TrEMBL record:
Matches recorded under InterPro entries: Nuclease_put_TT1808, Restrct_endonuc-II-like, Uma2
Cleavable signal peptide: none
Name of the protein: Putative restriction endonuclease domain-containing protein
A Pfam family assignment: Uma2
Gene3D superfamilies according to UniProt: tt1808, chain A (3.90.1570.10)
Highest taxon listed in the record's lineage: Bacteria
Boundaries of every Putative restriction endonuclease domain copy: 17-179
Length: 196
């Protein structure tokens, strides 16, 4: 009988193999989050416009800005696909679909109906554990931005030590990236109603 750690390693390889070979239907996207393959519908126009407004304000001469790029996290069974990946120009010139987390300066997620828990909880700890210096959560349902900095810890207990919330219309300072983000053009969506 195989030991539990050997079985876990085999299971992890199987999940990665299944994820690598997954055929995602048009209009959907898939992510690997803590060993679970998560598939969701593609984003709406409000979401995509917000991502574009953010990307347009980050200077391309200093920063590489990649939309929906898979990121690899060491010591994590996760390959999330953030809405926007920001890294210093030249930080990762390797081929392939995965950007290594240590090359990343900022990750941006725009909350959707199905991603609330993942963006605020699961990805927050994954990104902190990976040492991503800045995590920006943009929530069109609440019309607010949450800027998280100073990652600390490992695994499920990892988190950011510093958080600042700003409402849409306010300028949002993005540390390290050196941008005062104009949020006045961010669209909103009707507030989400809690499940009964």
């Amino acid at each position: 009988m195989r030991r539990a750690t050997e079985m876990t390693a085999v299971d992890d390889r199987r999940v990665h193999e299944a994820f690598e070979n997954l055929v995602v239907p048009e209009g959907f996207k898939a992510e690997l989050i803590r060993g679970e393959i998560v598939m969701m519908a593609g984003p709406d126009k409000v979401h995509n416009r917000i991502v574009q407004f953010v990307q347009d304000q980050i200077p391309s001469d200093r920063w590489e800005r990649l939309q929906t790029q898979d990121v690899a996290f060491p010591h994590e069974e996760s390959e999330p696909q953030p809405d926007l990946v920001v890294m210093k120009a030249g930080a990762d010139d390797s081929p392939g679909r995965l950007v290594p987390a240590p090359a990343v300066t900022m990750l941006v997620e725009v909350v959707s109906k199905t991603s609330v828990h993942r963006d605020y909880v699961e990805k927050r700890s994954i990104y902190a554990a990976g040492g991503v210096p800045v995590y920006l959560i943009i929530d069109p349902f609440e019309a607010k931005c949450l800027v998280l900095t100073e990652p600390t810890g490992t695994g499920l207990s990892a988190d950011y030590q510093n958080s600042r919330t700003r409402k849409f219309g306010d300028r949002v300072q993005l540390p390290i990236v050196g941008v005062d983000l104009d949020t006045s053009r961010f669209g909103t969506l009707p507030p989400l109603t809690p499940a009964p």
